[in-house]
Protein: PRD domain protein
Organism: Thermaerobacter marianensis
Amino acid sequence: MNPLQQVAQELQLSIAELRQLQRLMKTAESLAAEVGIPLDDQACLGLATHLVGLVRRLTEGKRLQGIDPSVFTQLPRDCMEIATRLIRPLYETAGQPVDPAEVGLVALHFGAARERASTSA
C-alpha cells in the first residue's frame, strides 16, 4: 500500500480530501525536487498525515497550540521556503494568515527527508 492510500484509509478521507491531498503531495514532491530533496515513503507518509491535519484544522478554524515557532529557527532556509510555498495557498483560500508553527512543522518533514537521503547515500 502506498503512503497516500495508507493515509486515506487510516484517516478515513473523503474523495474530496483524497484529491486535495494528492494535489498537495504532487506540489510537495515538485518543491522538494527543486531543492534536491527526495521524498521517500516515510517522508510522504508523515507529510501527508500532517497536511490532512492542517487542512482539517483550517476547515474547523483551529490553530496549533503550544508550539513556539522560534524552535524552528535552526531549520534550513530552503526547507522553510518550500514549506511556506506549499501551505500558503491553503491559508489564502481560508482567508487566514499563515501559521509559522505549521510552516516549521512542514519544513521538518522536508529536512528529515534530506537527512535520511544524505545518510543512506
